[in-house]
């Protein structure tokens, strides 16, 4: 079972300075998401025992306005480096969850990090895939610290994760921009929606926002790009049609260049 942390409402009901509404609690999540998260929690407890310090969910699922949850983002914090047996059991657990739950295939997006690293500002190293570092660490901390987080086990986030500075957040946004540039031809809908979020963050100086809220803001502020943005929304919801695909294929790179120009203008201003 999930620990009693999700019933501790002090963290999740405090006033939020960013975001569009109070974050979801565990009981608010769709049943299929709850089942995956419960199985993840139970499996990690069995695999890691006392080495497991905490599991923190964040991302789209925690925002109340998100209608389509395609992935489950989390940080699992461990007290000491993972032994070979622990790594093997974690990989087996992920494979087992992918077999049992469609949502837990490639969409179970987790970072396994050391407790000492979680308390630092530099990007933490993935303890299973050790060639990976969380280059969005400042952005993840901002979301978690703002309360857009569900604690499956462990202490409250403000006891673990340091507050990011604006310079750190700027570096995180720049990294997101590089990721988008690299994957423009692969994940066009994702890139269009994330460009909306980048534009929102640079303009408002707020990074704790869902793709949906940032997209609604972009539709209000850049209406000439409305058809492309709406096509990306439909595609992300897996409701795309031939015209949407045509728009995404022909206009995504142009929207990327527009967004980059706007960001440069905002930074100069």
Description:
It is built from ten helices and four strands. It has a four-stranded mixed sheet with strand order 3-2-1-4, sandwiched between helices. Residues about 1-20 have low confidence and may be disordered. It has two domains: about 5-160, no CATH class; about 165-269, no CATH class. With about 270 residues, it is α+β, with helices and mostly antiparallel strands. Helices cover about 50% and strands about 10% of the residues.
Entry keywords:
4 strands; 4-stranded mixed sheet; 269 residues; alpha+beta; disordered N terminus; 2 domains; 9% strand; 10 helices
Mind sketching the topology for me?
Elements: H1 10-13, H2 31-48, E1 52-58, E2 72-78, H3 84-100, E3 108-114, H4 115-118, H5 137-145, E4 150-153, H6 166-182, H7 188-204, H8 211-221, H9 226-236, H10 242-268
Parallel strand pairs: 2-3
Antiparallel strand pairs: 1-2, 1-4
Helix pairs in contact: 2-3, 5-6, 6-7, 7-8, 7-9, 7-10, 8-9, 9-10
Q: Hey, roughly how much beta strand do the residues contain? A: 5-15%
The Rg value, from CA coordinates, equals: 19 Å
Q: H/E order of the elements? A: HHEEHEHHEHHHHH
For the sheet with most strands, the description reads: 4 strands, mixed
Helix content: 40-55%
Number of domains: 2
**How are the strands of the largest sheet arranged?**
3-2-1-4
* Shape designation: globular
Low-confidence stretches: 1-19
H/I helix tally: 10
Mean pLDDT reading: 89
Number of strands: 4
Q: What is the terminal-to-terminal distance? A: 51 Å
* Helix-strand makeup class: alpha+beta
């Amino acid at each position: 079972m999930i620990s009693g942390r999700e019933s501790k409402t002090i963290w999740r009901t405090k006033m939020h300075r960013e975001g569009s509404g109070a974050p979801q609690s565990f009981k608010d999540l769709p049943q299929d998401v709850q089942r995956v998260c419960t199985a993840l929690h139970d499996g990690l407890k069995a695999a890691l025992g006392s080495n497991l310090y905490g599991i923190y969910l964040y991302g789209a699922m925690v925002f109340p306005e998100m209608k389509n949850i395609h992935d489950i983002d989390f940080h699992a914090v461990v007290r000491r480096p993972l032994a070979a047996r622990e790594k093997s059991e974690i990989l087996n657990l992920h494979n087992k969850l992918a077999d049992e739950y469609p949502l837990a295939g490639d969409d179970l997006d987790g970072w396994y990090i050391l407790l000492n690293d979680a308390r630092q500002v530099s990007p933490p190293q993935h303890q299973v895939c050790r060639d990976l570092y969380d280059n969005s660490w400042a952005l993840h901390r901002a979301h978690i610290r703002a309360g857009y987080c569900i604690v499956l086990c462990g202490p409250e986030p403000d006891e673990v994760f340091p507050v990011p500075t604006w310079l750190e957040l700027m570096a995180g946004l720049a990294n997101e921009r590089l990721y988008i540039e690299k994957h423009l031809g692969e994940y066009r809908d994702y890139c269009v929606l994330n460009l909306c979020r980048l534009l929102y963050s640079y303009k408002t100086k707020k990074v704790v926002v869902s793709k949906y809220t940032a997209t609604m803001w972009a539709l209000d502020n850049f209406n000439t790009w409305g058809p492309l943005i709406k096509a990306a929304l439909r595609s992300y919801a897996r409701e795309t049609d031939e015209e949407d695909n045509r728009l995404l294929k022909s206009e995504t790179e142009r929207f990327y260049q527009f967004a980059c120009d706007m960001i440069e203008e905002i930074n100069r201003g």
